[in-house]
Amino acid sequence: MNGLAFKLGDAVALTMSKEAGVVIGRAEYEAAADQFYVRYVAADGRQVRDWFGAEDLSKR
Predict the structure, then answer these.
(1) 34 — phi, psi (to 5°)?
(2) Tens digits of residue pLDDT in 15-59
(3) Which of helix, strand or coil describes residue 44?
(4) CB atoms near residue 55 (< 10 Å)
(5) φ, ψ of residue 54 in degrees (nearest 5)
(6) Cβ contact 36:51 at 8 Å
(7) How far is CA 23 from the centre of its chain?
(8) 39 touches 21 (CB < 8 A)
(9) Are 22 and 39 in contact (CB under 8 A)?
């Protein structure tokens, strides 16, 4: 991949659930897919943080 798919601070949505959040961390690897740490509001209203691959996210 040429550069990471998302920047810190990008607004994103989880592709399967459409829950929305912000990229707060990124991890780039030599031999694995890049990962993005996202703070988002879960469907039940909780604020949560978790790691996702670029394929799991879309820009908002």
Answers:
(1) -60, 150
(2) 999 899 999 999 999 999 999 999 999 989 999 999 999 999 999
(3) coil
(4) 9
(5) -55, -35
(6) yes
(7) 5
(8) yes
(9) yes
